[in-house]
Amino acid sequence: MPLKKPESDFLHELANIAEQRILSSYLKSHCIDISTKPKEGFRFDPVTNIDRETEIIIRRMISERFPEHAIMGEEFGDTGSSTYKWVIDPIDGTRPFLCGLPVWGCLVGLLENGEAVMGMMSQPYTGDRFWSDGKCSWFSGRLGTSIMKTRQDAELHQAILHTTSPESVKLYHNNKFDLLQNQVLMTRYGGECYAMAMLAAGHIDICVEYSLQPYDIVAFIPIIENAGGVITTIDGRRAENGGAIVVSANEQLHEQVLNILNS
């Protein structure tokens, strides 16, 4: 008997339990134990007890509700084998989390036969949630609930470009980021996962990230695509496996961006 696809309400249940754990320690440095893990090209890649404990809580709830599903998480790797795989990053943006800047988020995505079909980014401190049920992309927060759409009329010379860190840009081989930067309206740094959400919501037009893991991006693929955006690797492939990722507000803009970055 084929497995039943979960309802998007379950994403909110996961966000609720993650929120409880994370907010109990956010902005309380005495509650946070910081360590580092190896990452090529980086001297410091932080991980905290909050990351680990939140992932354990999310994994437990998934396993209780959907014991036949597989799970991939940033902190504890892969478990199980199934048509459906949950992909978790309990705190995407640990650096801003440690700095008290609320541009981090909890990411939960769902793969069906290897393709991202549902996902959510929740920000417990602001109360913002960005999610896709596989048909539409939604925002909810203090301003209410609305359907998200990317800027379909965004042109390259008017575009807002975002990348999280100059470090990742410099590490990428054959880098043409400067060529792209010189052709857009403006470039911003440091938005972490919030930048992807803002692209889906129509406020940013291009996101380029050079070193993402699956748990950094799977949740965003259905959010971006069902809002009208395009998300691929820098060489035009599906983005589920991570790598160098390009996200654009519309197809024409995406083609232009890829041409520049691969020139």
TrEMBL record:
Name of the protein described by the UniProt record: Histidinol-phosphatase
Lineage: Bacteria, Pseudomonadati, Pseudomonadota, Gammaproteobacteria, Enterobacterales
Keyword Acyltransferase: no
Pfam family, one: Inositol_P
InterPro entries for this protein: His_9_proposed, Inositol_monophosphatase-like
A GO molecular-function annotation: histidinol-phosphatase activity
BP GO terms, sorted: inositol metabolic process; L-histidine biosynthetic process; signal transduction
CDD domains: Bacterial_IMPase_like_1
EC number in record: 3.1.3.15
SUPFAM superfamilies xref list: Carbohydrate phosphatase
Cofactor: Mg(2+)
Keywords: Hydrolase, Magnesium, Metal-binding
Positions bound to Mg(2+): E74, D89, I91, D92, D216
Similarity comment text for this entry: Belongs to the inositol monophosphatase superfamily.
Gene3D superfamilies in UniProt: 3.40.190.80, Fructose-1,6-Bisphosphatase, subunit A, domain 1
